[in-house]
Amino acid sequence: MARTPSTARTPGSERPQRGERGERGERGGRERERDREREDEFVDKLVHINRVAKVVKGGRRFSFAALVVVGDAKGRVGYGSGKAREVPEAIRKATEQAKREMIRVPLREGRTLHHDVRGHFGAGRVVMRAAMPGTGIIAGGPMRAVFETMGVQDVVAKCVGTTNPHNMIKATFDALKMLMSPRAIAAKRGKKVGEIIGRRDGAAAAAATREQ
Question: Is the dihedral of CA 155, 132, 119, 95 positive or negative?
Answer without folding.
Answer: negative
